[in-house]
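forwarding from the other thread:

> can someone predict this with adenosine monophosphate?

sure thing
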Amino acid sequence: MKLETVIIEKSKKFKKEYSKIISAIKRYDRIAIFRHLMPDYDALGTQFGLYNWIKDNFPNKEIKVLGDNHVTFTPRLFPETDNLNDSWFREPFLAIILDVSNESRIADPRWKKARYKVKIDHHPKVEEFGNVAVTDTTCAAASEVVVNMLLTIKGNYMLSENAAKYFYIGLVGDSGRFQYSSTSTHTFAVASHLLNSGINISDIYQNMYLKKIDDLKVTAYILNHFDVSKDGIAYYVLDAKIQNELNITTERGKENVNLFANIDGINAWCSVTEDPNPKDPCWRVSIRSKNKPINQVAAMFEGGGHAQASGARLNTIEDLPRLVEELGKLFR
Ligand code: AMP
């Protein structure tokens, strides 16, 4: 099938929703773009990609980007988000909520004040919200869903190099550099369109995966301290004390989780990072797996996500053996 046909076929299911979304973008002069807490490449890439696309095509609109900045990606890869006070939200605005399947994980609660709400996501549906929602779990990244929409809506719109760069970061991030099983011909069709807009992919990769010498010390610590259960569940634990010694923030604890991908005998792998935040202390878990879905197990531990990449939380580290046991059952 031709790449163009792949894109058009995918868009058919959401034709009505796409046209409602573009009408809403045209209708509102004030637009706020939201996404999930603790953002990753895809959340931020989709958000800034769409921000630039709207700015390029509707230069007179006021567009805001909401949510927390990233500890290392901001400002290296993404500009700072907007710091708005509550008065901005009193006038009518459109909220576009990206890459998140449950309301409690939306990074800024003020999306609720929007006159009209649009949700675009690729996570398995947890709850539906918004006046119009596109949830396409067949896409590897939220940016893949959004680019499909932008390429197939009626009208003569431009996809600038700047917008394409951010969408590409999202696509690469959530497809694990086109390695995860969620990668499809459509993912590549979207990548091909983004490349056509003139992006420099070697610059993008260098920036995305840039490391510092100190980062190697964190990797060395993890390689010296991980465990593997009898069922092939690998995990490492970074408590608050060790984060201090390694000079990393809690957000960075999961950065090394994929050290354990593609290792013979390892079926699923997890990072377990203590979050000492006095308001809500917990242990944040990132879970990845080779070929079995782990999101049901993540859901048992206040989490969720994709079949092979999920997040969860433990209220106490005493719960870790139970998590490892539940994951292990999947591979017996
Ligand atoms: P992470 O391990 O934080 O990179 O998350 C992996 C995937 O799971 C991402 O797509 C997250 O959006 C999703 N995720 C993480 N935590 C949760 C949660 N508590 N509920 C639902 N989805 C989650």
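The chain has a mean pLDDT of 96. thats all i got for now
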